[in-house]
């Protein structure tokens, strides 16, 4: 057992991206934040499934070319192999929880020049 305080961790890109509170041994758990206009590169996972739960704000999460507009309180499940891309097209920051399981140290495959 262990306890982590969110304030002791940092977002990957300063004020945005994932902030991992746990990486392995069986899953990843992160808080994710994007400011207005920010996005996260299109990618997929070979083994891990990914889930997002929207804590605050709204975001477009594109999965295999389909734009899914999500708002506070909504949840999306993304299967391994599904290409996904997150973009905050709105005026306020977005904050959401991300889980990935089963844990794999390296399982993110970037998709170059992704269009939808």
Automatic annotation (TrEMBL):
The lineage of its organism: Bacteria, Bacillati, Bacillota, Clostridia, Eubacteriales. It comes from the Bacteria. This is Cupin domain-containing protein. It holds the Pfam family Cupin_2. Residues 31-98 form the Cupin type-2 domain. It comes from Clostridium uliginosum. Signal peptide: none annotated.
């Amino acid at each position: 057992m262990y306890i982590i305080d969110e304030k002791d961790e940092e977002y990957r890109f300063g004020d945005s991206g994932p902030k991992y509170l746990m990486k392995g041994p069986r899953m990843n758990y992160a808080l994710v934040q994007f400011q207005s206009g920010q996005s996260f590169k299109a990618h997929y996972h070979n083994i891990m499934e990914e889930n997002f739960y929207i804590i605050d704000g709204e975001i477009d999460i594109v999965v295999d070319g389909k734009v899914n507009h999500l708002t506070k309180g909504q949840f999306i499940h993304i299967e391994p192999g599904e290409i996904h891309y997150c973009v905050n097209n709105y005026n306020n920051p977005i904050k959401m929880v991300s889980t990935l399981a089963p844990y794999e140290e390296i399982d993110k495959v970037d998709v170059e020049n992704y269009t939808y």
